[in-house]
Amino acid sequence: MTEFDLIYRYFDHQSDLTQKNHLGSASILKGLGDDAAVIEFTADAKWVSCVDTLVQGRHFSDDWSQVETLAFAIGYKSVAVNVSDLAAMGAAPHSILLALALPERLANEKWLSEFAKGLFHACSQFGVQLIGGDTTRHDKLVISITANGLIESGLSAIYRNGAQVGDKVYVSGTLGDACYALHHLSDESLSDSAKIAQQLAHRLHMPTPRVQLGQALAKQGQATAMIDVSDGLVQDLTHICQQSGVQVRLHLESLPASTPLQQVELTERLRCQLTGGDDYELLFTLPAGVSPPDGLDCSDTQITCIGEVISAAQPNSDTPLVELTYQAQVLSDDYPAPFAQMPNLQGFQHFV
Ligand code: ADP
Ligand code: MG
Asked: Which residues line ligand 1 (CB under 6 A)?
């Protein structure tokens, strides 16, 4: 059973709730299924809420010396990945709650003060306050953060489900950096791959959620769908396709690569860009002819058009929802170039 089969089979009780969950004027505009839930209190106050858990040995190294060395980055990243989900709704970050399961070995001044420094550095950078949490003892480090945000008065959150045929597909920043760093940081230290990985390590350990861009898109009011890329471009784009009922064409030569990643052999680079997790870039759709917002307070954030919505999804069809093209040719088992054979496009999976 995949992660998503499991979620929808056991935890999707939204149809039961829609009628009952009204408290005064508060209603659930979006429940399970998007980057965050959206609750409307009054016509001009929308509350956005999400939770993400980072587990030692799964989201960061199991190795104690690494967990000790990376205390600051782990604190920072736990906040950043949650803020990224708020950004993917177009929300302004507001506050967080921190649930910490702490191993004996890390319950010391050195580790905790570094972890807290990283956490509060992210809090001040993204404008969130820690407003509570829970602390327990456990044999592995587990950090679960609930993040809250607000949709600016008069604006709407951007969901995964509104992409339309003819829309263009855009992504912020560059793709694949964190994936390459994860796989090559421990290569032989003088090798070219380790040197490239070292230049990209900050993208793995200290990702930048695209908060201003998310809010600028909400303000512009033109984006039809949005998600943050946390589990791999194709997998996350497939969520947009499934929820919007559309098929998308992606152009491999358009995928944005950082300068260090451009030195990597093409097929390995593309694999990282298509399936690597931990990018925390925003992936969104805009109607043809509408440009992404400019004048952002994030002028170093590049935005690249990487494809378009080509058709409505055909129910019960074997055609993949995300079609890949390279030099104007659609990739297929018979014509997989630039790959020797069609790559496995599945991204990060917790359960298979
Ligand atoms: P993201 O990658 O943005 O964190 P996911 O794609 O992992 O989101 O999750 C899909 C949706 O499933 C989200 O809306 C999330 O809130 C919901 N979800 C995940 N696990 C559970 C759970 N155990 N119970 C209820 N909802 C869940
Ligand atoms: Mg997300």
From this structure: 7, 11, 32-35, 52, 85, 230-231
DSSP structure string for 24-78: TTBEEEE-BTBSSEEEEEETTEEEEEEEEEEEBTTTB-S-HHHHHHTHHHHHHHH
pLDDT along the chain (352 residues), means of 10: 82 63 72 96 89 94 94 98 98 98 96 98 98 96 98 96 98 98 93 97 97 97 98 97 97 98 97 96 98 70 96 87 95 93 79 56
| C-alpha to C-alpha distance for 207 and 310, rounded to whole angstroms | 31
**Helix, strand, or coil here: 195?**
helix
Residues 6+ apart with CB under 8 A from 202: none
Q: What are phi and psi of 248, to 5 degrees?
A: -120, 145
- Which residue's CA is the nearest one to ligand 1's atom 21? 7
Residues facing 286 on adjacent strands: 168
Q: What is residue 5's predicted lDDT score, i.e. its pLDDT?
A: 83
Distance, CA 250 to ligand 2 centroid (Å)? 20
Best mutation site among 7, 48, 145 for ligand 1 pocket (most ligand atoms within 8 Å of CB):
7
CA of 4 to the centre of ligand 1 (A): 8
pTM: 0.94
Q: How deeply is 116 buried, as exposed, middle or buried, from its count of CB atoms within 10 A (0-12, 13-18, 19+)? A: middle
